[in-house]
Amino acid sequence: MGTDAETELDANIDSDPDPHVVPRTVLAEQVRYQGQSITVRSLESLIDGERTRQNQQVQELQALRERNTEIQRSVVEELVRLRQIAQEVGAEVPKPGLWSGLRALIPGRRKGALVEHSVEQLLREQYHLSACRVKEAADFADRLAVAESELYDEIDRLNQRIIESSQNKATAASFLSRLQTFMDQTTARRRPLGADSVAALTMQADLDRGHRLLSEHATQLQLYHTAVERLSQLKDSTRMLSETIASLRGDITQYVMAASEKLDLVSGQIRAIGAAADATATLLEMKQSLDGLSESLNQTTRFVAETQRYFRENLDTLVGRLEVYDHETRASLEVNLDLSRAADDARIARLVRNALSDGGSPAALPARRSAAPRQLATAAASPPDRARDAGDRGPRDPEGSPR
Amino acid sequence: MSAGTVSGLPGCALQEAAAESYLAHATALVREARLGAQFPPGRAVLASLEALSVRCHRGLYPQLLVEPLSGLPALKEWTRVRTDTQLAQQVLAGLPPPEQLAERGPHHPAYGKQLLKGLYFSALARKPPPPIEQLVVALQRLAAPRVQVQVTLDKLDARGLLVRCMVELVQGPSPRPLIERRGEHVAAAPELQALLYRRAAQDAELLFIELAAQPGVSVRRVCVGTIGPLHPPELPSSEGLGELRRGPAGQLATFSVDTAACDLTADRNNDPLTDLLGQRLSAAARAEYEEARRRLGYRVTKDRKFVVDGESLPAVTALCQGAGTRNVIYPLPAAARDPDSWPPR
Questions:
Q1: Bond into B344 cis (ω within 30)
Q2: Which residue out of A64, A68, A88, A99 would a mutagenesis test of the B interface target, given it has the greatest number of B Cβ atoms within 10 Å?
Q3: Nearest C-alpha of chain A: how many angstroms from B189?
């Protein structure tokens, strides 16, 4: 219950039948926002939490990219190794016949030194190594499927928060509109009154109370507006992450399927080794198979290199977009300067990578600040250009194969 | 048999129920063979067969590829067990937390597969199947500069059969010894490994001859034990031993031992399916072959045992009698013929 003057003012206003007049009760109105109340600190904590989660996702994506590079490098090593085996095949001298060949081995007869490697043994060992790599790649694809699913769950969660913040924003805006109307109307009613009159002083008190409420809920409006904007940006980034992972998973799945088919062919060819007393035909067949397999693996290597390049380009773009430098947000939320540091680091990493790929020494770089949560891979750890060039040159130029 | 024929043969892909039935029969055949030290390790073979079953992999692998000639799983399948065992810890480390898998696995395909992988690879990590392929060199006697060793190579040969090649030899001074020694630690030189790999699928005396020809090497014994071929009811009938199966549940398996050694008193062929090497040579070559054998001083014995179901037993018995051999034939217990009632362990 207010004072007598306030009661009288209420009565005066209530007696005014104008539907556009906002009653004084607006000053006592309970504005109900959904979810927990929002403050600068809580919004900052929310945004930081979401960004930390996204940092982790980007780090995991970076680890997946490095793993993809390892798999690619292993495939190239297998290619080199298979080439060596093909050379061993050429060096093996087939025996013309069972006993005739063994005659040279009987004591007293001249014989050549034992061959150091069995072709079948080398092939089997290489087959096992290749099977391991393909299995690792398949497991990699499964992990990507889970990561992709988690990101879609993240998008759902962010959408829920965005909707909640948007509804609260509308609630705040509606209240502020009515409150502002009340204050305008009160100011107009107060103007003709004497400054010392009770009514004028009461109205002034209402105006002061209204200013206070305006300030409070305008802040709420601003915070909810900011939350909608920032969460929407995070959601867009999350969607980009999920699309990148989906593409990578599709590419790797294709690679695994193609490599598995090749391995099945090789396992069938390995069965042929040693089955015949006369190994000439077997060796020739094996050499032909190896040449075919080498070429297939060469194509697979190019395929993986292209995948890795796609991944790299999209990840860099994605990370660049994540490093949003929002002046308004910073002003209202006291944004952590690490955001800007991360953007600088991304730009620096790109400069270094471009400089090294052009063959020159790195140009002078801006002074580096302390490391941001997300570090991009250096050029040394990821030589996609050399991998692509080596794949284009084919298996006859081992010097160009990436290490 | 030409290389083209062998390499062109496709494997036999068994799906789900047929694969489980095959594995149960193969396990029973190997278990009932009572394999000794001359054969590849039965425990490792049985553990690998168990790892191939859906009880272990929970359906992650929808089909099983079997070599029709050997009746054993194809190289791809043995390799799968080996690679999965090798990668088990790495895969488990990359899985989501068990609580998350248990909660989301039943409802989401991506998590569901990870849940199955968690169960499968956990089982492999807890009890890894021993390797079916390995090379072991055991020091038997050291009297410098000579060293006596036993070299044992277990491998899957090109025919798809599991083979144990065991060699006892004495390595003396040589510019390129086959046995490398550091103190009491001995290892097989790459040349010896390659030789064993190439010759393991052939007659033991071929390997005996080739080893005896190496400088500084004195061979005492070469023994090649072979598991297979198996003829379970899930595989189509093939020419040869497979024709001896009787009835829809007919199944049999053979296990052979081929020995060339200096301490045998006489040649003996108790294998109804194989002739001695000398019997396969032309008359002209045989004379020189016999002379070489006398110089090297070894004898050869071949033996073979069978595991067979009751209905097929008379046919196998008649085979051995017709060849004039006296072979051990283990009858399969009645329960072992029904994969649904046979306990896997």
A1: no
A2: A99
A3: 9
Please tell me the pTM assigned to this model.
0.71
* Cα–Cα distance measured from residue B255 to residue B234, given in angstroms and rounded to the nearest whole number: 20
Distance from CA of B226 to the nearest CA of A (A): 15
Judge: B2–A281 Cβ closer than 8 Å, yes or no.
Answer: yes
Interface test with A, best of B60, B69, B81, B83 (most A CBs within 10 A): B83
Cis peptide before B229 (omega within 30 of 0): yes
Q: How many domains does chain A have?
A: 1
Of B126, B161, B187, the domain-final residue? B126
Tell me if A280 is assigned to some domain: yes
Residue A170 maps to which CATH number?
1.10.287
Interatomic CA distance for residues A183 and A202, integer angstroms: 13
Whether the CB-CB separation of A17 and A125 falls below 8 Å is answered with no
The pLDDT tens digits along chain B (345 residues) read 333 333 344 678 999 899 999 999 999 999 999 999 999 999 999 999 999 999 999 999 999 999 988 999 999 999 999 999 999 999 999 898 888 888 888 888 889 999 999 999 999 999 999 999 999 999 999 988 899 999 999 999 878 899 999 999 999 998 889 999 888 899 999 889 988 988 888 889 888 988 888 889 999 999 999 998 999 999 887 667 777 888 888 899 999 999 999 999 999 999 988 877 777 667 776 777 777 788 888 999 999 999 999 988 988 898 888 888 999 999 998 765 555 544 444
* Touching B: A residues 5-44, CB under 8 Å: none
Of the three residues B88, B105, B126, the one that is the final residue of a domain is: B126
Is A62 part of a structural domain of the chain? yes
- A114 vs B195: CB contact, 8 Å cut-off? yes
Q: Is residue B271 part of a domain?
A: yes
Instruction: Identify the H or E element spanning A160.
Output: helix A119-190
| Domain coverage including residue A304 | 28-95+115-326
Task: Inspect the interface and report whether the beta carbons of A275 and B193 lie closer than 8 Å.
Answer: no
Is the complex ipTM more than 0.95?
no
Q: Does B217 contact A at CB distance below 8 Å?
A: no
Q: Answer yes or no: is B343 within a domain.
A: no
Q: Is residue A334 part of a domain?
A: no
Instruction: Quote the Cα angle for A131-A133-A139, to 5°.
Output: 100
